[in-house]
């Protein structure tokens, strides 16, 4: 239903413009982006920082997006000097702290892209947390930041 989608997109854009906030959970997402990959790449990843302004630890449990066949939470592990991605069941965001989803660390993996993503395109992404709250984001597609942005 196009009108519902448009409404969702608008809500997501507004959330993005103001910093997406899950009102009762105190979670704020900043600087989200989906990495632009070479044409034909089957997968990509979303990165962001999630701040927790509440008094209790939170966990990101699940992410969903219509652009990919499946979405998983991943981390990177050092396997005898080779960095490999591994699926995790949750990403912790400590009370008063923040979780950094960045290249080489935790990320949201978009697996099996249904269509090639374009530079600047907004990708709908829903994050679900252990307190039952969720955030709906419109995450821009862009190139990975310059090397100084890596950790
Ligand atoms: Cu991954």
Give the SSE map.
Elements: H1 2-18, E1 20-22, E2 27-35, E3 43-52, E4 58-64, E5 68-79, E6 82-87, E7 91-93, E8 98-101, E9 107-113, E10 122-129, E11 134-142
Parallel strand pairs: 2-11
Antiparallel strand pairs: 1-2, 2-3, 3-8, 3-9, 4-7, 4-10, 5-6, 5-9, 10-11
The protein binds copper (II) ion.
What key phrases describe this protein's structure?
globular, 11% helix, 151 residues, 11-stranded mixed β-sheet, binds copper (II) ion, mainly beta, 1 helix
Helix content: 10-25%
Report the radius of gyration as a whole number of Å.
Answer: 15 Å
Distance between the termini: 41 Å
Structural class: mainly beta
Description:
There is one protein chain. This protein is mainly beta and 151 residues long. 11% of the residues lie in helices and 52% in strands. Strand 5 and strand 6 (82-87) form a beta hairpin. The structure holds copper (II) ion. Residues 45, 74, 85, 107, 109 line the site of copper (II) ion. Copper (II) ion binds next to strand 9.
In brief:
With 151 residues, the protein is mainly beta. 11% of the residues lie in helices and 52% in strands. The radius of gyration is 15 Å and the shape is globular.
